[in-house]
């Protein structure tokens, strides 16, 4: 570590940078805040009721059916204001969680949703002209994971889901409908759940103990996890006060009574004490991890071979070079292949031509032979004709002679008879 050459000085009067924190506060108030909660839990486990109770308002979320073929995530954004602080609150609810036969299909959409919000933020960050200042950050800051109050152990689905979410989001597990479990059972159940989470290596969100103003309360609250909560918007008269409660034939469960459940603890920890830490952890731990993996996947690294520091530009140039080389190689390969193919085709054509030529020669020869044979026949015929003509001529002469001879004989005979 290099020792920096910094000197401490004292000023002789007020300058005013002590107001810097106030400037920061004013700026933040003007800008407003944003907080995003993801509620993961089975259909009807009490997600909407708890969120309504936490923010003391009616978000008017509709009931979902148990027959969804897939898990869906439904995000809804609201503007809330408390004194002069504006909060843009997004509630993301899982719809149909745990209703599928294939358990993996139940939590994969949640993982995908969280990643998609990180990806959107990363894309904004990587833009040349970015507007992170007024960007609507949809990254999930807290995941309330609703565990059913069975008193047994965690379901496989819960373990699998939490295991695949814990590196992406701050998980705050809660035991839902905690009025359904007795006090002694609840203590055992909490211990069992925590030991199961630990033995399965599931990292849940721990309230931070490094800031001394909240270290004590946070440390003690970490010991109460997972919070056992009861939700209700119904008001019941207890003593002479109206309180949020659930009324049963045998008595009243008061939501905000710490002897009845941990609702107040959850509200304190989630909203009053650690909302900023949840936001910060999301940015500096979970998003940072996503960003790192994503950039490494894209081939970026801070150090090159032999641990030499590597700038983004160098990586980019190297990558471009590599891609260019690869393209050149592919191009050459294709050219060679083309030439090879042309050669093959040419050879095939030449072979065909040769065959055709041979066939032609053969036919020519056959034709020639045939012609010669015919010539021979003709010659023989002509010879025959000539000899026949000769014969004919001879026989004509002979005939003539015979004819004349017989005429002479006739004349002689006639003369003779005349003389007789
Ligand atoms: P979906 O959005 O349809 O999945 O349901 P949800 O998880 O939002 O549950 P919701 O808040 O609609 O509650 C379902 C039922 O459980 C309602 O009848 C609520 O009154 C009841 N309920 C909610 N919270 C509690 C609780 O803490 N204890 C008990 N016993 N019942 C509760
Ligand atoms: Mg609901």
TrEMBL record:
Main location: other
Cellular component terms per the entry's GO annotation: cell projection; cytoskeleton
Keywords for this protein: Cell projection, Coiled coil, Cytoplasm, Cytoskeleton, GTP-binding, Nucleotide-binding
A family per Pfam: Septin
Compartments it resides in: Cell projection; Cytoplasm, Cytoskeleton
Coiled coil (UniProt feature): 335-391
Molecular functions (GO terms): GTP binding
Family that this chain belongs to: Belongs to the TRAFAC class TrmE-Era-EngA-EngB-Septin-like GTPase superfamily. Septin GTPase family.
Record text on subunit structure and interactions: Septins polymerize into heterooligomeric protein complexes that form filaments.
Role summary: Filament-forming cytoskeletal GTPase.
Protein name: Septin
Gene source species: Myotis lucifugus
């Amino acid at each position: 570590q290099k020792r920096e050459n910094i000197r401490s000085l004292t000023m002789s009067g007020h300058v005013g940078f002590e107001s810097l924190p106030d400037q920061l506060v004013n700026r933040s108030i003007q800008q407003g805040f944003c907080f995003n909660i993801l509620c993961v839990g089975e259909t009807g486990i009490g997600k909407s009721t708890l969120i309504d109770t936490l923010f003391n308002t009616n978000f008017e979320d509709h009931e979902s059916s148990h027959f969804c073929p897939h898990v869906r995530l439904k995000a809804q954004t609201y503007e809330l204001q408390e004194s002069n602080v504006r909060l843009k609150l997004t509630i993301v609810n899982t719809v149909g969680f745990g209703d599928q036969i294939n358990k993996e299909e139940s939590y994969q959409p949640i993982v995908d949703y969280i990643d998609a919000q990180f990806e959107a933020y990363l894309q904004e960050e990587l833009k040349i002209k970015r507007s992170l200042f007024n960007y609507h950050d949809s990254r999930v800051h807290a995941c309330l994971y609703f565990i059913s109050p069975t008193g047994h152990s965690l379901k496989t689905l819960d373990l699998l889901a939490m295991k695949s979410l814990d590196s992406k989001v701050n998980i705050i597990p809660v035991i839902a409908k905690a009025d359904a479990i007795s006090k002694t059972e609840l203590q055992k159940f909490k211990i069992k759940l925590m030991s199961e989470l630990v033995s399965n290596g599931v990292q849940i969100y721990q309230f931070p103990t490094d800031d001394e103003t909240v270290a004590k309360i946070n440390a003690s609250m970490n010991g109460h996890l997972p919070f056992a909560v009861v939700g209700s918007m119904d008001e019941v008269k207890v003593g002479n006060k109206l309180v949020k409660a659930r009324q049963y034939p045998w008595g009243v469960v008061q939501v905000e009574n710490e002897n009845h459940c941990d609702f107040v603890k959850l509200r304190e920890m989630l909203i009053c004490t650690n909302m900023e830490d949840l936001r910060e952890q999301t940015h500096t731990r979970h998003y940072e991890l996503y960003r790192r993996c994503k950039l490494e996947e894209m081939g970026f690294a801070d150090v090159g071979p032999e641990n030499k520091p590597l700038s983004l530009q160098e990586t980019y140039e190297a990558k471009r070079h590599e891609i260019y080389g690869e393209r050149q190689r592919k191009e050459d390969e294709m050219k060679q292949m083309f030439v090879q193919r042309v050669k093959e085709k040419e050879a095939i054509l030449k072979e065909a031509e040769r065959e055709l030529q041979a066939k032609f020669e053969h036919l020519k020869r056959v034709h020639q032979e045939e012609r010669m044979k015919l010539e021979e026949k003709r010659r023989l015929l002509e010879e025959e004709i000539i000899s026949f003509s000769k014969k004919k001529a001879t026989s004509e002469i002979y005939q003539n002679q015979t004819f004349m001879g017989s005429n002479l004989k006739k004349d002689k005979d006639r003369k003779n008879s005349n003389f007789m």
